[in-house]
Design goal:
The protein is α+β, with helices and mostly antiparallel strands and 736 residues long. It folds into three domains: 299 residues, no CATH class; 114 residues, Glutaredoxin, CATH 3.40.30; 260 residues, 3-Layer(aba) Sandwich (Rossmann fold), CATH 3.40.50. 48% of the residues lie in helices and 18% in strands. The strands form eight sheets. A seven-stranded mixed beta sheet has the order 10-9-11-12-25-24-21, with helices on both faces. It has a four-stranded mixed beta sheet with strand order 4-3-7-8, with helices on one face. A three-stranded antiparallel beta sheet has the order 13-14-23, with no helix packed on it. β17 and β18 form a beta hairpin. α2 runs antiparallel to α4, α7 crosses α9 and α9 runs antiparallel to α13. The longest helix is centred in the last third of the chain and has 35 residues. 42% of the residues are buried. This is Gliding-associated ABC transporter substrate-binding component GldG.
Length: 736
């Protein structure tokens, strides 16, 4: 079968679309509505991503796609031109493919208007073009699927209005078929099947920035099935119900559609994907790979997962299976991986219970009331008589980190020791950093005390408020000279959240750092642009978000030798600035590296400071970039240990670690660099990170918002006007 006539037919169909004023009206309405919904909240949220834009896409596409396809065949039938077209020396299949391609080109032209938004956002914040590529690809494939569906429905009617309304309804159902709106009242056995059939499931999967073969197979099957059914309708019109040729086509296309459907559903068993994200957040890190490739013996991994989980957990289950599949491949013969369903096997249910994995209750909406369902989604790891368990996988974004750290905990023969030095009224891991401590014990031997534990590789000085005596300072210097490493978390101020005030500490950290030319300054840093939003309402009924410049989003430099390369930003609350003397550094035999800085819109406060979000006035003059974290590495020939200084300790508190994956990642990276363990340094909590848009003034935000909305209306209007005027001139032109 050849398709030599398709280019000419596509050109003809595009000419019809682009010469029709109604096409531009629909296009402009779609673009302005889509971007209006996005910009209504996007700049308030301040994310440097198009996540919200593509969350709206499937619903506004219910306007554009049916409007474009409603007359594809129904208008031809109503005008009586379909028979004329099919009697031309072209194949029926060529006509269908040309109509599908021309509609796809037209809608893709509309989707490309997201590119100027992406470019403008990238000018004011870190932007992941890999995720954007996945979002754009998913939107094109999604549109291609709706177009195929619309052409099929158009082939059923001679009325364009009937075709439009039924296409909107069918498109809506294809989106929600796997959601609780449909599945809440259905038997659990068919829910996974419906979830796989939903366009929304595969659209959201591709929009993450991961090109998965299962999603590609689904979209290809969806398109081919409905184009085949459209072809069958043309054959029915051509041959009639009783003709032998039509029966042959009917049987063949039904079988072909069944094959496409089975390939799409069974393709769920075929892993294979390309991670487009800039941070490779869906790919095992190099440290994870090295740990898995060097396992000393067999680790058994059991995934206990129910098939009747609520729809919102289906993406988590899918990603969990993908991660475990990657771990199995990298671990080779030293990883035994088993998938078990405790719901259908009493033996496996009892086994899961013995390992500490219990059924979890879910509240779902069904029959207009809340219903309670139960299910399993836990992982058990076994090695040499020892075991670790993840009772329930609530979020797959940090699953690689959890699994690899647990595997390392089970298989490591010896762990390096970290001491949190309590002298100087400093904070300890057990009392002040409980969440951090629970993660560190998987990787290190952690202890606290007034003296450095024997064999410690790292000593942590976390927010001391008192002074070290001369003996303690001498011990710290000797520890460093013998190759020990220091992590210094220096708080110049003590914060009282009850009194909303900050008072100076009486520590002498600078005495320890004096020989290296580093100083911890007696100030608090504020950043007017790169900061966090806090919920403020003074306990009243109305709460609202306020930017809080004392909680800065500290940024890594664009280039760094060892640290922060995978860090987007670290939230540092009430941080003080650091400075260093270059002349002293030359004689100290250390190299200095900036790890975290503020934006260029940071200032300093000194003296007694009020920290209330509604009480503080910030000077907007004399702003500049401030250094808030540095690393000191010994030069060649210097056998002393490494040092990291951060002007804050509160960033490691439970509250900030729970709400910022990068805070935990930064802590793990710094400790791994200090311990010289490169494998652990590359294991990160790979939660999707979105940078913050940094506008110097409101006019820039307004230019981005109204400029993009205007662009989406002006360009189609001008191009459409030019084509229509040109066409009218040609119509009235007199030829000799």
């Amino acid at each position: 079968m050849t398709f030599l006539n398709i280019p000419a037919l596509v050109k003809k169909e595009l000419r019809i679309l682009f010469n029709n004023p109604s096409s531009y009206i629909v296009l402009i309405v779609f673009l302005i509505l889509w971007q209006f919904l996005f910009f209504r909240n996007a700049l308030l949220v301040g994310e440097s991503s198009l996540r919200i834009l593509y969350d709206y896409l499937p619903w506004v596409m219910l306007i554009l796609s049916p409007a474009v396809t409603m007359g594809s065949i129904s208008k031809e039938q109503d005008d009586g031109t379909l028979e004329m077209l099919l009697t031309q020396p072209v194949r029926d299949s060529e006509v269908l493919v040309a109509k599908w391609l021309s509609s796809l080109i037209f809608i893709t032209a509309a989707l490309i208007f997201a590119l100027p938004i992406a470019v403008s956002f990238s000018l004011f914040g870190p932007f992941d073009f890999g995720i954007f590529a996945g979002q754009l690809l998913s939107s094109i494939l999604f549109s291609a699927s709706l177009i195929a569906l619309g052409i099929f429905i158009s082939s059923l009617f001679t009325s364009q209005i009937a075709s439009l309304l039924l296409t909107v309804l069918a498109s809506f159902l294809s989106l929600v078929i796997g959601t609780e709106l449909i599945t809440a009242n259905l038997p659990n056995s068919i829910v996974p099947f419906l979830e796989k059939l939903s366009l929304l499931t595969h659209l959201e999967s591709l929009s993450r920035g991961v090109v998965d073969i299962r999603d590609l197979l689904y979209f290809a099957s969806f398109i081919l099935i409905f184009l085949s059914l459209s072809f069958l309708q043309l054959m029915k019109r051509k041959y009639g119900n009783l003709r032998y040729h039509y029966r042959s086509y009917q049987i063949g296309i039904i079988l072909l559609s069944g094959i496409f459907l089975m390939v799409s559903l069974l393709g769920d068993r075929i892993p294979g994907r390309i991670d487009l994200t800039s941070g490779r957040i869906y790919t095992l890190s190099s440290g994870s790979v090295k740990i898995l490739e060097n396992l000393p013996d067999i680790v058994t991994v059991n995934l206990y997962a129910s098939t009747n989980l609520p729809p919102q957990y289906s993406p988590i289950l899918r990603e969990t299976k993908d991660i475990l599949h990657d771990i199995k491949i990298r671990g080779g013969k030293n990883i035994n991986y088993f998938l078990k369903d405790p719901v259908i096997s009493e033996t496996e249910s009892q086994e899961a219970g013995r390992k500490g994995i219990q059924q979890v209750q879910f509240n779902v909406v069904g029959r207009e009331e809340f219903q309670v369902k139960t299910g399993f989604l836990g992982i058990a790891l076994d090695y040499a008589g020892k075991s670790e368990v993840i009772p329930f996988v609530e979020d797959s974004s940090d699953l690689e980190y959890q699994l690899i750290t647990l595997i390392h905990k089970l298989t490591a023969k010896e762990k390096k020791r970290i001491t949190f030095l309590a002298a100087g009224a400093a904070k300890t891991a057990e009392n002040d950093f409980r969440l951090l401590n629970s993660e560190l014990v998987k990787l290190y031997d952690v202890s606290s005390g007034n003296e450095i534990a024997t064999g410690s590789a790292i000593t942590v000085l976390a927010g001391p408020t008192g002074k070290y005596d001369e003996i303690q300072l001498k011990n710290l210097r000797e520890f460093l000279e013998k190759g020990g490493n220091l992590l210094i978390l220096a708080d110049s101020y003590s914060i009282s959240t009850q009194l909303m005030s900050a008072s100076l500490n009486d520590n002498n950290i600078n005495d320890l750092l004096a020989n290296f030319g580093v100083s911890v300054n007696k100030n608090l840093v504020y950043d007017l642009k790169s900061n966090e939003l806090i919920n403020f309402g003074q306990g009243g009924p109305v709460n609202y978000l306020l930017p809080y410049p004392y909680w800065i989003r500290a940024l890594p430099p664009s280039q760094t030798r060892n640290l922060s390369g995978k860090i987007n930003f670290v939230i540092l609350p009430w941080v003080n600035s650091l400075t260093f003397d270059k002349d002293k550094l030359k004689t100290s035999k250390y190299n200095v590296e900036e790890l975290l800085t503020t934006s260029a819109y940071a200032g300093l406060k000194t003296g007694e400071i009020s920290i209330g979000p509604d009480q503080t006035q910030f000077d907007s003059t004399n702003l500049s970039k401030q250094i808030v974290a540095i690393a000191l590495g010994p030069r060649e020939g210097n056998t002393s240990g490494r040092i990291i200084v951060v002007g804050d300790s509160d960033y490691l508190s439970d509250n900030f670690l729970q709400n910022s994956a990068d805070n935990l990642n930064f802590a793990l990276e710094t400790l791994s660099w200090l311990s010289r363990d490169e494998n652990l340094a590359t294991i990160a909590v790979k939660k999707k990170k979105t940078g913050k848009l940094l506008f110097t003034d409101d006019s820039q935000a307004a230019a981005v918002k109204y400029g993009n909305i205007a662009l989406s209306g002006v360009i189609p209007f001008l191009y459409g006007s030019w084509r229509i005027i040109k066409r009218r001139k040609l119509k009235h032109r007199k030829f000799p």
